[in-house]
From TrEMBL:
InterPro entries: PDZ, PDZ_sf, Pept_S1C_Do, Peptidase_S1_PA, Peptidase_S1C. Residues 259-351, 357-459 form the PDZ domain. NCBIfam families: degP_htrA_DO. The gene is degP. It comes from Desulfobacula toluolica (strain DSM 7467 / Tol2). Keywords: Hydrolase, Periplasm, Protease, Repeat, Serine protease, Signal, Stress response. This is Probable periplasmic serine endoprotease DegP-like. PROSITE patterns: PDZ. CDD domains: cpPDZ1_DegP-like. It is found in: Periplasm. GO terms for cellular component: periplasmic space. It catalyses: Acts on substrates that are at least partially unfolded. The cleavage site P1 residue is normally between a pair of hydrophobic residues, such as Val-|-Val.
Length: 472
């Protein structure tokens, strides 16, 4: 009998040693690795679409930069990337096709995708999971968040539902569905690797990072939680980092999509201040106990903050009931507020707390502090951008140099028949010094048609030359 008891004890001990040990603080509701994602995929697939676009490209599109040199030699990739938004001159016209993804949000054909998927498209085709094809129209788009809303003429579709990205936790399972490299209805799974990622793509960066496989063509597709709810819109990858993808959070996207649905455009609140995070030095200087809040570095004249009485040197730490701990907090909070809404701004001025009511305006299309760009070619055929220190450094000029950089040259124009090329710096017109776009446009207005105009250009650090034009 004793031997039997000893044998039973040995069996029990062996069993305990080989039983997985749960952490002391583990919760019973933790979802471990799902046995399968197949049911989720079956439910979600009818709501995911493939998007194909066609654009008419002047001059060869993307391939052009691989065959044509740069004005200063050196790093071609840097130069092309720097001038990509402004460079339109190409040797010949062609059609360019691109692929992307999207997902249905209503049974009558509204579809969400990325703005960069449908931007400048002349034709948009949507392919459903059953291979049915539709032509789509753009309802509205928002470049600042890279979101777009399109529509097809269809009924009885199977839309996906939005979930809360705020409630989604790092480490939880997610599924991405899309058309990577044109491979429709591709399903990949992973976890949320991080939240609140800032990539430097704009003022509203707040990305979900995931290791669910995302590749070119996934853009605009849904990132789903384990319940099949959309918690993100897949939008970006890091080319040098395999397995790292980024999605726009659903809580940010839904507000934008609602505005696009109702008014086809997005209006954001605007205070009119330039801000920065409070450093330890600023906190000590202003007598603030914690390094939280934002320092007002500039107040734009006649904008809402200026009219309400906010001053340079104020430290904003609360908007209505929301604590402001960083510049990003303030930017997102004000952007989420309605134009015309009055917000209560709590701040510290001269060591004392103060509350100021600010009636918000509409955010301008372009940051007031950004260098201005000509909306179109000038009368000679130049596309120009105002020089700043960052641009000067990248192009090899002294950082304090002034003038206008040639970013593009219109095909067939007077400018195209000269030796001027991209990257050259326009410094003077008829010995009149040019520092800004306004200087240039105002001077040209004063010149009578038919008169010869002399433009002084600089190339690199040493070469200076003059080009003459007849004012039309």
């Amino acid at each position: 009998m004793k031997q039997i008891n000893k044998l039973l004890i040995a069996v029990i001990v062996f069993g305990l040693l080989n039983t997985p040990v749960m952490a002391k603080n583990s919760h019973s509701n933790i979802r471990m690795v799902p046995a399968s994602f197949s049911e989720l995929a079956k439910q979600a697939k009818p709501g995911v679409v493939n998007i194909q676009t066609v654009k008419n490209i002047e001059g060869g599109g993307r391939v052009y930069k691989h065959f044509f040199g740069q004005p200063f030699g050196g790093n071609r990739d840097m130069f092309d990337e720097f001038f990509a938004p402004f460079f339109n001159q190409r040797p010949e016209n062609r059609k360019e096709s691109s692929l992307g993804s999207g997902f249905i949000i209503s049974n009558d054909g509204y579809i969400v995708t990325n703005n960069h998927v449908i931007k400048d498209a002349d034709k948009i085709k949507v392919i459903l999971h059953d291979k049915t094809e539709y032509d789509a129209t753009i309802i509205g788009n928002d470049p600042m968040t890279d979101l777009a809303l399109i529509k097809i003429k269809a009924e009885n579709l199977m839309p996906l539902k939005f979930g809360s990205s705020l409630e989604a936790e790092v480490g939880s399972w997610v599924v991405a569905i899309g058309s990577p490299f044109g491979l429709e209805q591709t399903v990949t799974a992973g976890i949320i690797s991080a939240k609140g990622r800032i990539l430097g793509s704009g003022p509203y960066d707040d990305f979900i990072q995931t290791d669910a496989s995302i590749n070119p063509g996934n853009s605009g597709g849904p990132l789903l939680n384990i319940d099949g709810e959309v918690i993100g819109i897949n939008t970006a990858i890091i080319k040098s980092g395999q397995g790292i993808g980024f999605a726009i959070p659903s809580d940010l996207a839904t507000g934008v999509i609602d505005q696009l649905t109702e008014q086809k455009t997005v209006s954001r609140g605007w205070m009119g201040v330039a801000i920065q995070n409070v450093t330890e030095q600023l906190a000590e200087y202003y007598g603030i106990k914690e390094t939280k809040g934002v320092y007002v570095a500039k107040v734009y004249e006649d904008d809402p903050a200026d009219n309400a009485g906010i001053k340079v040197g104020d430290v904003i730490f609360q908007i209505n009931d929301k604590k402001i701990e960083s510049s990003r907090d303030l930017t997102l909070t004000i952007a989420a507020s309605s134009v015309g809404e009055t917000v209560k701004v709590k701040l510290i001025r001269d060591g004392k707390e103060k509350m100021i009511k600010v009636k918000l305006g509409k955010r301008p299309e372009q940051d007031p502090d950004k260098a201005k760009i000509m909306d179109e070619y000038d009368s000679f055929g130049f596309g120009l951008k105002q020089m700043d220190s960052d641009m000067a450094k990248k192009l090899g000029y002294p950082e304090d140099i002034k003038g206008l950089v040639v970013t593009d040259i219109e095909s067939g124009s007077q400018a195209s028949k000269t030796s001027v090329r991209r990257g050259d710096l326009l410094m003077e017109v008829d010995r009149y010094k040019i520092d800004t776009i306004e200087d240039y446009t105002q001077y040209l207005k004063k010149i009578a048609a038919g008169r010869t105009v002399q433009l002084l250009f600089r190339r690199g650090n040493s070469h200076v030359f003059v080009v003459s034009f007849e004012k039309s």
